[in-house]
């Protein structure tokens, strides 16, 4: 540490449930040094991932966007010239005004997601949307499927405090890979293993870095987690692990569930999942006899057409065994529903009109290419304002998304930190701040803390925060709302007060507010947050939006996945790479070096059958597109499964087509949601490899 530097508190803003409490070495008013996890935060516990520990490499990156840019070449050509902020904002405002006059206000679609998880800089775009009556956005890309499944049985997005994993005897990481994506989970698991001899089980179709350090790894076929869960519950009823007293008090229809599960034993599940019967029996016995069993649900197993059903089935497990009632027992997917933040000021909810159409962000390709159903029979989208998202790389069916962005009659403004693929297709590009360069408010999905990350250093060049850009556009567009007249910190302070939390000054001084619920509430001892207080084995899916009756009445394997077949014999998952977070961090040389190049993992039997050597170039394809990658032959998953850790920028692939060219924008029921791990593809050696083999 340099003698003139100071340590300041901050919060990791990235789209990761850990929302780590940080300690940042601030060298002067413009630069940072080392970044560490706050040792005295009981969840972060001094541990952060290497991505953020090396944040100086990202925030001081020479490729940061520094100035507003105006497109001078054809769309996507990456030809721009520097312009002044006033000219850039005037152009955007003029385009929006003109297009709204011609096509109606719904032709403008402000588009965003979770490039930052700070509530003001992320969600403030909705204030402009609502005040201006622009098209609304259905936020389906990440949480719709798991949240529907979690809500179905439990009723609210909250679960047992993750710090209790440290006093569990069995932790099941289901459909997640915290070693790569949320390292703090491992901190608490490691404590339990060291201090109590706790077991770690991982359910994941491939041997992820987390599965590699587990005591037991179950690798079912992708999209068959509901069958695994049903078989575990079958064994619980069969072998006396089911807590009928608990269920009589806390569940809606345990007898119906028991009858339903009689035909869903390990043999049934083995045929669906590809897992050996013995493996399912072992896991079921371990889970059934362990009172303090904690399921940490990831997002992965819900990124499937049957993802909501899978999540619901898994949440039934602690209800059958009664694990919820014990310290260290129960489950957690996300605590995002526990903070009761009043977002009226941030999002302009007082100006929201639900009659204005809502467009599905996961289907942006269909929206921009004129799908009448997706446009809700309204006007085409003629203008986008994009913050915190890189849809050309991240959204499903990316070839279709690119076709949409190539429309000459579409005006696009992208406010970004780097020249992403989406920024390259913009008409106007605006340079954005990073989290240490602005203030923001954070609530943690993966634990229980509310924090404020204050501005620590001046932004480079002419970068402006999202809030500043929205203020400037609002003034040009005539959008009136108190939120546009306030500083970010004033919005944070007013929001905290309106939500019943201590004011901003107190939170800054205390560094965080632990919003953990008392044991009885967190463990649903006082009842589940649903009418009648009982967990629903038989959810009211229709009330949740399942108009077509697609969801199973009781937990089950829902056979709606993109099944493999003779023409597309593989099932592809696009699991997160350790060094990236979606496309964030892909610009860091250290992460790129660690990840190497875009690869696809395949089973040795498949490799041998197809004559594909480790490292060979292969092509994956389906009706949506073709993608070139390098093969990595690995054990630890079933034949017929492919995994491409993601998300590499498209330009890193031979041919410039990224992995989401293969994924579908089909919405998963009941409420929509992207199905990134539910893709049937074919695989063959690339032509160059075949040529070399022939020679
Ligand atoms: S583990 Fe997650 S929250 Fe923590 S520093 Fe890394 S990306 Fe940020």
Give a brief description.
This protein is an alpha/beta fold and 695 residues long. It has four domains: 6-59, Phosphorylase Kinase, domain 1, CATH 3.30.200; 69-142 and 339-512, Rossmann fold; 145-335 and 538-544, Dimethylsulfoxide Reductase, domain 2; 570-694, Barwin-like endoglucanases (Beta Barrel), CATH 2.40.40. 32% of the residues lie in helices and 17% in strands.
SSE blueprint:
Blueprint: E1 6-11, E2 21-26, E3 32-37, H1 50-53, H2 55-59, E4 69-71, E5 80-82, H3 85-103, E6 108-112, H4 119-123, H5 125-132, E7 136-138, H6 144-153, E8 170-174, H7 178-181, H8 183-196, E9 199-203, H9 209-212, E10 216-218, H10 225-239, H11 244-250, H12 254-261, H13 266-273, H14 277-289, E11 293-297, H15 307-321, E12 330-332, H16 344-347, E13 358-360, H17 364-368, E14 383-387, H18 391-394, H19 398-405, E15 411-416, H20 421-424, E16 428-431, E17 440-443, E18 449-453, H21 466-477, H22 482-485, H23 488-498, H24 504-510, E19 513-514, H25 519-522, E20 570-573, H26 589-595, E21 599-602, H27 604-610, E22 617-622, E23 625-633, E24 641-643, E25 679-685, H28 687-694
Parallel strand pairs: 6-14, 7-13, 8-9, 8-11, 9-10, 11-12, 14-15, 15-16, 20-24, 21-23
Antiparallel strand pairs: 1-2, 2-3, 4-5, 4-16, 17-18, 18-19, 20-25, 21-24, 22-23, 22-25
Helix content: 25-40%
* Bound ligand species: iron/sulfur cluster
Helix vs. strand class: alpha/beta
Our count of domains comes out at 4
Shape: globular
The averaged pLDDT comes out at: 97
CATH class of the largest domain: Alpha Beta
Strand numbers in spatial order across the main sheet: 5-4-16-15-14-6
Strand content: 15-25%
Number of helices: 28
Low-confidence stretches: none
CATH T-level fold name of the largest domain:
Rossmann fold
Number of DSSP E strands: 25
Largest sheet: 6 strands, mixed
Distance between the termini: 58 Å
Radius of gyration: 25 Å
Indicate the CATH architecture of the largest domain: 3-Layer(aba) Sandwich
């Amino acid at each position: 540490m340099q003698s003139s530097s100071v340590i300041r508190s901050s919060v990791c803003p990235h789209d990761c449930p850990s929302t780590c409490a940080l300690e940042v070495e601030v060298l002067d008013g413009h630069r940072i040094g080392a970044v560490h996890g706050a040792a005295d935060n009981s969840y972060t516990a001094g541990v952060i991932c290497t991505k953020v520990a090396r944040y100086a490499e990202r925030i001081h990156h020479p490729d940061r966007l520094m100035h507003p840019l105006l497109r001078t070449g054809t769309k996507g050509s990456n030809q721009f010239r520097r312009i002044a902020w006033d000219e850039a904002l005037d152009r955007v405002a003029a385009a929006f005004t003109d297009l709204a006059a011609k096509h109606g206000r719904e032709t403008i679609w402000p588009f965003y997601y979770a490039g930052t998880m700070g509530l003001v800089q992320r969600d403030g775009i909705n204030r402009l949307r609502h005040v201006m009556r622009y098209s609304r956005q259905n936020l389906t890309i990440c949480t719709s499927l798991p949240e529907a499944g979690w809500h179905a049985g439990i009723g609210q997005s909250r679960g047992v405090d993750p710090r209790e994993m440290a006093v569990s005897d069995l932790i099941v990481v289901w459909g997640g890979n915290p070693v790569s994506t949320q390292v703090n989970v491992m901190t608490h698991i490691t404590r339990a293993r060291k201090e109590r001899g706790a077991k770690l089980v991982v359910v994941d179709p491939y041997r992820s870095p987390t599965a590699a350090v587990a005591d037991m790894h179950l690798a079912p076929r992708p999209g068959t987690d509901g069958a695994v869960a049903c078989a575990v519950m079958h064994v619980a009823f069969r072998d006396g692990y089911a807590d009928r007293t608990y269920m009589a008090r806390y569940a809606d229809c345990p007898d119906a569930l028991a009858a339903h599960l009689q035909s869903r034993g390990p043999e049934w599940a083995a045929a669906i999942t590809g897992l050996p019967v013995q493996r399912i029996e072992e896991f079921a016995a371990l889970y059934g006899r362990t009172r303090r069993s904690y399921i940490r649900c990831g997002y992965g197993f819900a990124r499937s057409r049957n993802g909501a059903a899978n999540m619901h089935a898994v949440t039934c497990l602690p209800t059958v065994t009664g694990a919820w009632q014990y310290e260290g027992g129960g489950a957690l997917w996300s605590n995002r529903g526990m903070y009761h933040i009043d977002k009226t000021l941030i999002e302009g909810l007082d100006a929201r009109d639900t009659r204005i159409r809502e467009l599905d962000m996961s289907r942006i390709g269909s929206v921009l290419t004129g799908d009448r159903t997706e446009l809700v029979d309204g006007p085409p989208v003629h203008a986008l304002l994009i913050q915190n998202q890189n849809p050309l790389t991240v959204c499903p069916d990316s070839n279709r998304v690119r076709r949409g962005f190539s429309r000459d009659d579409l005006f696009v403004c992208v406010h970004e930190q780097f020249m992403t693929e989406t920024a390259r297709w913009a008409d106007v590009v605006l340079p954005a701040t990073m989290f240490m360069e602005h203030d923001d408010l954070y609530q943690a999905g993966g634990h229980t803390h509310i924090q404020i990350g204050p501005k620590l250093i001046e932004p480079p060049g002419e970068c402006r925060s999202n809030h500043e850009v929205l203020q400037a556009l609002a003034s040009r567009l005539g959008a009136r709302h108190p939120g546009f007249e306030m500083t970010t910190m004033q919005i944070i302070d007013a929001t905290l007060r309106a939500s019943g939390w201590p004011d901003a000054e107190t939170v800054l001084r205390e560094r965080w507010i632990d919003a953990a619920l008392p044991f009885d509430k967190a463990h649903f001892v006082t009842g589940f947050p649903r009418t009648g207080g009982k967990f629903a084995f038989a959810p009211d899916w229709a009330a949740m939006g399942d108009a077509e009756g697609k969801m199973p009445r009781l937990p089950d394997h829902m056979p709606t996945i993109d099944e493999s077949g003779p023409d597309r014999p593989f099932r592809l998952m696009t699991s997160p790479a350790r060094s990236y977070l979606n496309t964030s961090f892909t610009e860091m040389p250290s992460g790129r070096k660690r990840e190497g190049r875009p690869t696809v993992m395949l089973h040795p039997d498949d490799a041998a059958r197809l004559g594909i050597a480790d490292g060979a170039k292969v092509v994956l394809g389906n009706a949506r597109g073709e993608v070139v990658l390098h093969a990595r032959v690995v054990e630890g998953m079933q034949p017929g499964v492919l995994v491409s850790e993601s998300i590499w920028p498209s330009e890193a692939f031979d041919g410039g087509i990224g992995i989401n060219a293969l994924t579908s924008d089909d919405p998963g029921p009941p409420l929509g949601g992207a199905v990134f791990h539910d893709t049937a593809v074919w695989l063959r050696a690339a032509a160059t490899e075949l040529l070399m083999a022939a020679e």
